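Bug report (template v2)

What were you trying to do?
Predict the complex of my protein with zinc ion.

What happened?
Run completed; filing so the output is reviewed.

Input:
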Amino acid sequence: MNETKLKIALQKSGRLSADSINLLKTCGIGFNDGLGKLRTEAENFPLEIFFLRDDDIPEYVSDGVADIGIVGENVLAETQKNCVMIEKLGFGKCRLSLAVPKSFDYQTIANLNNKRIATSYPNVLSRFLAENNIKAEIHTISGSVEIAPGIGLADAVCDLVSSGSTLFTNGLREVETVLISEAILISRSNLNGELQTILDKLLFRLKAVRAARQNRYILLNAPNDKLQEITALLPGIKSPTVMPLAETGWSSIHSVINENDFWEIVEQLKAKGAEGILVLSIDQMIE
Ligand code: ATP
Ligand code: ZN
């Protein structure tokens, strides 16, 4: 009998590939991702994995070749396919920005009126320009957009940026943010019951991995006369674990803290007399 499998499309080779593969593996899904593979099956989860160009993934998902996929929000926004975003994944962060040569006297977005803008994102850009009442000429090119002003093809560009170093080395200055993006899990809008059940199982694991990545396990030693003040800084999942040390007058405290609060809390813990602070990463976290 053929077991039903959920089909997922991942980027074959590019900026999202390693993190996408890693995410599935951290969810306990084992598979062979050997070079050059187009398709593989997970060993211990009803999942079939396709490796494709990122631009094609929304189309494959909306056509039903794959059921779900991982792409940048930028790609979904541009292709306007009939897919839904199910979950943000926390990697592949970047923004789609407008940039102009350093010599361009840019004051406001109105300076882009009647200018030529090179981009690989004509749909997203034309919506943005329309919202801002700008009439410009959009030149669609598929790669190396950042060189367009230098070779006289355009007056400005609309391109993906993460650190901004590519713009900088090409003498460009970022002037407007068009879209903020990260990797997302997309799906066809109506999966049948069996596929939805598998997807729910995968989502349960994804949520546990994401929660774990946002938290750290912390252990520390505290003098007993400071226990109350120190545990008040560490709410944990329910409340921190407190155990006596072999040395009288001291306790060991175990808890979970959010990575955003991490440094601030560690400083306060030290100030209150905590010692031997250990911080560990968490693989999965199920509340
Ligand atoms: P493919 O061969 O699959 O078409 P590509 O060249 O279009 O690959 P990549 O450059 O690998 O795509 O980028 C994939 C995604 O990574 C982008 O769509 C975007 O969501 C994200 N990303 C994150 N940071 C950046 C960045 N600095 N520049 C471009 N993309 C980025
Ligand atoms: Zn692409």
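What did the reviewer find?
The pocket of adenosine-5'-triphosphate (ligand 1) is lined by residues 11, 14-16, 53-55, 72, 74-75, 92, 94, 160-162, 181 (CB under 6 Å). The helical segments are 17-26, 57-63, 73-79, 122-131, 165-169, 193-213, 227-232, 262-271.
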